[in-house]
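<given_protein>
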Amino acid sequence: MRGYVESLLSKQASIGVWGIGYIGCSTMAYYAEAGIKCIGVDVDASRVDTLNRGEIPVPGLEAWFDFETEPLISKGLMRATTDTAEVLNQKVPVHFICVPTERDGRPELSILETVIDQIAAAIKNDSTFSPLVVIESTMTPGTTDKLVIPLFQSHGLIVGQDLLLGVAPRRDWFVAKGQSLRNLDRICGGFDEESSEETLSVLGIVCQTLHQASSYKVSEIVKCVENAFRHMEITLANQLSLAYPDHDIRELLRLVGTKWNVGTYHPSFGTGGYCIPLSSQYVLEGAQAPQELTLLAETLQTDTAIRERVAESVISRGCKRVGVLGLSYRGNLKVSILSPTIGIVKALLDRKIEVKVCDPYYGDEEIRHQTGAFTFSFPSDIQEFDALLITADHQEFASEESREALLNLPIKPLILDNYGLWSDWKLREHGFEYYQAGEANWLGNLKVPSVI
């Protein structure tokens, strides 16, 4: 053992974290809370400055922690930099890579490649720098063998000798309190026995339950496959609501979920975020025989098509002015990657329907850039619309002020509610045509070619 844990616990060394988004910031916070100094590296200077002045630069993430982060920053346990030289030295012997591995909703590894190249060059230039590198980013299966290890080798380095390498993609649910880096089960695997042992030891400073895979190849693919399973199950929920339009599939699946070995899912406007829809793409892209993964390919097709179904259902009901509540794919987060909102808005705009979007986590220009739609204020502007789509269950949309404004509308809009955010408001009793995704006839009497 090379003593990485001892040097960290004795405060003689720091952890370097590449990328300070959701994954990187939370990695830093939990290790800092355990007394370990962390330095985050990011190309975004504004994000770096935000963290260094005592604020978490990721909207909504602070609420996920069960501790305050400002004292950790003020004590110097968390800081950030744009200067890679600050972490590429022997004083920072452990490196977590938490950078994006997608672009425009597709797997893309150029940022990971850049980081690996920078670390490799530093090791080559300094014989005293022999770090443990742990990749927390989700990767297409085979990336470690096809990209990571060859990059180190191209610098004349021997993995397992000049550096140790671990692969431990993160499992997280940032909208659920209590589901933390500390108590969620964690999978890890190393390049060799020493890499595995050191990765396990360093992760064990924070993580309570660790499962050691037999190799990095296994730990690399686990995250993708577990989310691909979920993707298929969620998409089956949508297919059921299309196949049985007169049934309340939400109720049906809630009862199905009472069986001890079946998860509970419900139909929706489609999946989004970095994990579920992207993982299915990672599995397909990394497969030696992708043509065998017919269920997964069909899952991606159906998941994309449901956005068109939602748009068509609104049009088929005669709605001309649509307000969309939420650009994020899920409430209380600022994550729009593969958000159903983007596909729904595009489909409506393509059909010359007036659409506006509101999301408290995004500025007007951000929304306009990502969706092509203008914005509106909620709840003051809701009288403009004859249909409201609630795509993200942001807490700001569920206030008493919002309810009162809605109930006082002289003309009641159609409301489609992705997560059932307004389900307790008894809107039907007040004359609204209100549907939660998956309820009977939530898509109306839509007659379009089947995607099943």
